[in-house]
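User: Show me a protein chain along with its predicted structure.
Assistant: Here is one chain, sequence first, then structure tokens.
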Amino acid sequence: MSDNTPNHLNPYSLKQVFLHNLNRIYFGKCYLNNNLEHIIGQASFSNLQLAIHEFWGDIKKQIVRMEEVYAYMGETPSDKNCNPIKSIVKDQFCLDEKQQITILSDMDIIMYLQLLEHVNITSCRMLMMVAKLLKYDKVNQLLTECFDESIDNDRLFVIISKEYLTEE
């Protein structure tokens, strides 16, 4: 085994890893929650607007679930060191730049939202592994619900993309 192989983490360190990553997705979701109305206004296709509304409803539920996780753990969210996720959310793929054809703006929105869902999927997967190690069964269930919604939202945006890209 290499000297670079990490040692198994003790419960305190596992909890710190868990909170660090939970904070990142929590504050990313909060920022997105505060800015989705603007993104909906930029979408030209009514089915895309409806999909974003559905996505927004799931984000609100995920924020509530994450707040339950913090309460269960006796912790308070901290946005210290959350810049990478906030940067992705704030960047918005330059969505405010006007495109020559509408489909470019709509496809940028879809790719942007799918990118964020993939970050959430990956984060939830890792957080669920840590929650299992910490024997946080309730937390694992809450994260599983967030994970499942993110998978469903990713599929929804794939379906919307196909509506643009499929021949009649």
